[in-house]
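Field reference: sequence -> structure
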Amino acid sequence: MTGGSKGLGQSIARLFAEAGADLFLCSRHEEELSKAAAEIAQGLPARVEWAVTDMTERTQVQALADTALQRFGRVDILVNNAGSNLPQEIDQITDEAWDRILELNLSSAMRLTRALAPQMKARKWGRIIHVSSILGQTGMQGRSVYSASKSGLLGLARAGAMDLGPYGITVNCLVPGPFLTDLPAHVLTAQQKKNFADRTALGRWGQPPELAGAALLLASEAGSFITGAGLVVDGGVLAKMM
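Structure field:
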């Protein structure tokens, strides 16, 4: 799992561990990874290992795949969760911001999928889950780069499902709405948080564990006939017209 050291990724990892999975995590920060691995494994027999990885560096993405296979022998479930956002108006987008966000949010997911799919194909079983966003289906001021990258993940899942379906591998996207992770908690003002909450049917932000169940569905036999899909978990944002 990429981006597994905090927020949505850590919540998903913990539920996977509770369901009996061993885990291999990555992020850019060793201290966060070490702490998260201990918390995820606490009280469980799960094996939780990690590697510091910058997903914007192509050689490090390949090294991550190689290391995971060396340590575990195989990877059955891939969760591409690494991502970030650099808000810029459409006529203010810099090439540096565009290249970095597309590399992190989209291209790294393709590269890790490309590296790990062959061993799934050999066993004729696998689960690939990309973490997209409702901003991949909608728009928001200043979010052109982010929306483009998250829309790309939906396309990657649909086409990837066609390529890998004959080998018993499903490819899907989680499509979360407003979840109160560390990033929005620290970046948004109280009024901005309220505005996001008001856009939902439930009138509140989601909590990270509320996305984990949907991830487990897509990763397990319970979701074996779901592929090429975007599973929306947004508290009703897309259902609410105004």
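Note: The mean pLDDT is 96.
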